[in-house]
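User: I'm putting together notes for a lab meeting next week and I want to include a structural view of one of the chains we've been expressing. I don't have a solved structure, so I'd like a prediction I can at least talk through. The sequence is below, exactly as it appears in our construct file.
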Amino acid sequence: MDTIRKLLTVILLVVSIVLIVVVLMQKSKEGGLGAAFGGETSSLSLKGKAVTKEAKLQKITVVLAIVMGVLALVMVALPA
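Assistant: Thanks for the context. Below is the predicted structure for the 80-residue chain, given as structure tokens.
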């Protein structure tokens, strides 16, 4: 179990660093918190157009955040 815990810790660290880099690569949305609730969502609704770099980064961010959360929960569930 100790080996599994160490491996999961390394994977969690790598995923965390990649998540930080991906978030920093995203273009900032002008408008602050107000844009988060009523902002433009044109990059999410492309209707058949090619996926933009920004949309890809957003999807990668979501996937990495989910992986990070699952890894954290698995590490908590492992016996000490």
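A couple of points you could mention at the meeting. The chain is about 70% helix and 0% strand. Residues 10 and 72 are 12 Å apart (CA to CA).

User: Perfect, that's what I needed.
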